[in-house]
Design a protein that fits this description.
The chain is mainly alpha-helical. It is elongated and about 65 Å long. The chain has helices spanning about 1-30, 50-75, and strands at about 35, 50. The chain has one domain (about 1-80). The protein contains two helices and two strands; from the N terminus they run αββα. Strands 1-2 form a two-stranded antiparallel sheet.
Length: about 100
């Protein structure tokens, strides 16, 4: 369960989000403008050039990197998580006051 939460979910999210953001960010860096040439926009959008376009394109690439880094971090944290409740655990501590 912990692997799914700390490794699987971030990797799944990275793939889903990366399918959209990575090509857009990569093309933005190559064309030095954002939105890149040939990308359909649904409303009149000002074209960014220069450092603003580069920053926005790099941000699109960093989103994927953050999910992957979280997944790598989670992989090493999973071993420290409890797998089962110990037999000597006092369950009366968990009961609510009535």
């Amino acid at each position: 369960m912990w692997h799914a939460l700390f490794v699987g979910l971030p990797l799944f999210s990275a793939v889903r989000i990366g399918l959209v953001t990575v090509p857009l960010g990569y093309k933005g860096i190559i064309h030095k403008q954002f939105p890149p040439k040939g990308v359909k926009v649904y409303k009149p959008t000002p074209i960014l050039r220069g450092w603003k376009a580069s920053a926005k394109s790099i941000f699109h690439l960093l989103i994927l990197s953050l999910f992957i880094l979280f997944s790598v971090w989670g992989y090493f944290q999973v071993e420290q998580m409890p797998h089962e409740i110990p037999d000597d655990f006092d369950l009366s501590v968990c009961e609510t006051n009535k």
